[in-house]
Amino acid sequence: MSASPRTARVINDRLALGLLQRQGPLTATQLKRLTGLSRPTVADLVERLQGSGLITVVGESGAERRGPNARLYGIVADRAHLAALDVRTDGVSVVVADLLGTVLAEATQPIDEDAGTEPAVERAVALLERTAQAAGARPLHSVGIGAPGLVDPATGELRNTTGLPAWHRRLVAALQQRLPATVLVENETNLAAVAEQRGGAVTDRETFVLLWLGEGVGAAVVLDGALRRGASGGTGEIGFLPVPGTGALPSSTGCDGGFHSLAGAAAVSALAAEHGLLADTERGAPYERRAATVVRAAVAAVAELSGAELPEAGAAAFLDALADRLAIGVASVVAVLDPGCVVLGGEVGRAGGAELAARVETRLAAMTPLATEVRAGTLGGAAVLRGALFVARDAAQDELFAVSP
Fold first, then answer.
1. Which of 17, 64, 109, 267 qualifies as a FRET site for 304, CA 20 to 30 Å off?
2. Digit-coded pLDDT (tens) for 306-335
3. What is residue 3's predicted lDDT score, i.e. its pLDDT?
């Protein structure tokens, strides 16, 4: 059954807008070639999108050319403003951007664990409001939030997970009350996978698993281009995976004894200390930063880079031991999902780079017959904010790009 005229217009509009967003300003002739639509159809959609305030003439396509065929059309970037939040247990980071994803302002606010629920929520909301004001943004259209913990797939809300501050769950409702915007929350590891696929280590993959290596550990599963969340939103909660070598079992209230006890930042830092690799100056730093710092230094030492401060033999032994641990969790994921590609994400994954990824891949090949490429993430901790911004932009586009009468 053929599409109705209105449905066809919506499809054509979104096709053209997607091209303009990905490739930048285009002429009507270029849109015709790229879309395969007829010249009259392209002329109609250009007029319609201009009338909707979504595109405008931004220049001409040549120094000597003039007239309608030379006009370059581009998306009106300030047609909608977006925000992304990365909510951590000790603070929140905010980015405000336009419809093309250009960052207009950003800020970070530490939030003490003893601040109390309502004061913590107020600080986070106020930070977003100040950042939007500094960006000169009109009322925000969409806000994407990345947070640790489980997101209920039925309600889209953070679940009451043990160990997370109460202000995390209260923040979403507070933003919905204070802002005339669409507010969306997603697990931080899932957002990192979105960012790595759209502009990071796996732009060429439709199926992969991202293993998040940060303060805690988690996994995001992308199959055939779709993010998989599971019945309760818990797909990829690999920190609870029972593994040998921990001496205990995880429970419903905590992942101590699970894979987290082998690969979380505190465990990585302790492993480095066993190999004599943590400098005294790093002992007071947060575990995630300590872990990323020592992994990066170990990689530099093994590569014999100028200025490497760690002994090469100790550094190699540490990376081998870390790869042994990571391979246990990765092999479990591969045995169930066979994704063909696993990304070591987060700050620790990025710090390990190709050196650590190659070590894990070698061990994995000895543990499973399922061929699996292991890559290092390229975005590190910044992937959460970038992924949240993609989610906010998608929400805005779903509404704005379906404007055809």
1. 267
2. 455 566 778 999 999 999 999 999 999 999
3. 63
- CA 212 to each of CA 215, 259, 264: distance values in angstroms, whole numbers, following the listed order: 9, 12, 9
5-75 and 80-191+385-400: identical CATH topology: no
Amino acid at 164: L
Domain 5-75, second-level architecture:
Orthogonal Bundle (1.10)
Rounded to an integer, what distance in angstroms lies between the CA atom of residue 323 and that of residue 94?
33
Query: What pTM does this model have?
Result: 0.89
Instruction: Specify the pLDDT at position 399.
Output: 86
The strand ranges marked E within 189-229 are 208-213, 217-223, 226-228
Fold exhibited by the domain 202-378: Nucleotidyltransferase; domain 5 (3.30.420)
Other beta carbons less than 10 A from residue 403's beta carbon: 17
Burial grade of 205 (CB within 10 A; 0-12, 13-18, 19 or more):
middle
Classified by CATH at the fold level, domain 80-191+385-400 comes out as Nucleotidyltransferase; domain 5 (3.30.420)
d(CA 335, CA 343): 16
How buried is residue 180: exposed, middle or buried, by Cβ count under 10 Å (0-12/13-18/19+)? exposed
Secondary-structure breakdown of the chain: helix, strand, coil percentages, each rounded to the nearest 5 = 50, 20, 35
CA 138 to chain centre: 25
Structure tokens at 374: 């292991």
Side by side, the strands of the sheet bearing 208-213 are 226-228, 217-223, 208-213, 341-345, 373-376
Q: How far apart are CA 145 and CA 233, in angstroms?
A: 15
The pLDDT value given to residue 65: 57
State the Cα–Cα distance between residues 349 and 353, nearest whole angstrom.
6
Residue with tokens 């690999």: 238
User: Taking a C-beta distance cutoff of 8 angstroms, is the pair 53, 76 a contact?
Assistant: yes
Higher-confidence position of 52 and 357: 357
